[in-house]
Amino acid sequence: MDERTSKRVVVDVEVEARIDERPCRIFVTDLSTGGCMIEAEDADLVPGDRVMLHFERLVDIGGRIVWLREGVGGVQFHLPLHAAVVERLGFRPGDEWDSDTAQLFDNFGRPLPVPRPPRAIGMRH
């Protein structure tokens, strides 16, 4: 059961970060107003580490690593990230995206749902 209280979006962005004051670059792959999922293969991460993420030209946000598994971890933000920033960073497929055949997967290999196009009000199938 998912206990999240805020909407998650899929992102794929490399950011500058400081983990317990050590500079590094990490990938953010999942984002919400309350936290994010990160990949940091070369960083020596430990649950409880303090994290500062720099989303270029948007915001710097701090938090703590709350879980970790094989170089992938979850960060809980100290303060909520503004929903507009979350939406701005969210994945938006380009024109080449074919939603009938394409499938996205998260870092654990689980398929992500493809949003359905909005239906016109009053239309029947």
What is this structure, in a nutshell?
This protein is mainly beta and 125 residues long. It is 6% helix and 42% strand.
Question: Can you walk me through this structure?
Answer:
The chain has 125 residues and is mainly β. The protein has a domain at 9-89: Thrombin, subunit H. Helix content is 6%, strand content 42%. It is built from one helix and eight strands. The chain has one helix spanning 83-89; strands at 9-19, 22-31, 35-39, 50-55, 59-69, 72-77, 104-105, 111-112. The strands form two sheets. The chain has a six-stranded antiparallel beta barrel. A two-stranded antiparallel sheet has the order 7-8. A hairpin with a 5-residue loop joins strand 7 and strand 8. It starts with 8 loop residues before the first strand and ends in a 13-residue tail after the last strand. The model has no long low-confidence stretch (mean pLDDT 78). This is PilZ domain protein. InterPro entries: PilZ_domain. GO terms for molecular function: cyclic-di-GMP binding. Pfam families: PilZ. It comes from Croceibacterium atlanticum.
